[in-house]
Amino acid sequence: MSEARDTGWARLSSVRIGAVVALAVAAAFVIWLVVRRNDDSSSTNTTTSTEAVKPIGPVAATAAALRVASAEAKQPIYWVGPRRGQKYELTRTAGGRVYVRYLPAGAKIGNRRADYTIVGTYPTPDALKVLKDLSKQSDEKSVSAPGGGIAVYSTSAPTNVYVAFPSSDVQIEVFDPSAKKALRLVTTGRVAPVG
């Protein structure tokens, strides 16, 4: 399945954002191994013109590093703003999906626990229409989001709230172990591009 058509898989209740992060970690490791092996051989060129963006992480990041990653990818990266006492973990896939995870002091970058707030930014053409269509399904709930957006979540996975805004080609996912907190982050306008 191509990245351009997989906007629905992120909505399946059986897919947890922790699993997505774990897959991104594994993919980054495999890519690192391939690149490292090919760097040792001067006769092999692995760079292709079809690469959308360079994968990143998971790595520790600052707000400034998130802004740089956003500029490099030529797409906004969303987050829920700075949080005192927490560090940011950045992961970006080759397909352009970006995850900003908020980790408390003492939590290691790259750990696979899904106990923390995560904001995912996914390239999705006409993202607002995609979510409006999704909101019509019987197991989905929707609420208005600030700025004319819409937020949608599955009744079977309310800890994952998806939001899109007018004239935007990105879908944002906010995960938090507390469904109430995930929804509150979206409805109170905390979801915004890093800037």
In short:
It is built from 4 helices and 10 strands; from the N terminus they run H-E-H-E-E-E-E-H-E-E-E-E-H-E. The chain has helices at 17-39, 63-73, 127-134, 179-187; strands at residues 56-61, 78-79, 86-92, 98-104, 118-123, 140-145, 149-154, 157-164, 170-175, 192-193.
Describe, in plain words, how this protein is organized in 3D.
The protein is α+β, with helices and mostly antiparallel strands and 195 residues long. It has one domain (3-193). It contains four helices and ten strands. Strands 1-3-4-5-9-8-7-6 form an eight-stranded antiparallel beta sheet, sandwiched between helices. A two-stranded antiparallel ribbon has the order 2-10. The longest helix has 23 residues, at 17-39. Residues 1-9, 12-16 and 18-51 have low confidence and may be disordered.
Number of helices: 4
Based on Cα principal axes, name the global outline: globular
Sequence of secondary-structure elements: HEHEEEEHEEEEHE
Strand order of the largest sheet: 1-3-4-5-9-8-7-6
Which regions have little confidence, pLDDT < 50, spanning 5+ residues? Answer: 1-9, 12-16, 18-51
Estimate percent helicity. 25-40%
Total beta strand runs? 10
Radius of gyration: 17 Å
- Structural class by SSE content: alpha+beta
Strand content: 25-35%
Tell me about the biggest sheet? 8 strands, antiparallel
Q: Give the termini distance in whole angstroms.
A: 32 Å
Mean pLDDT: 79
Tally of distinct domains: 1
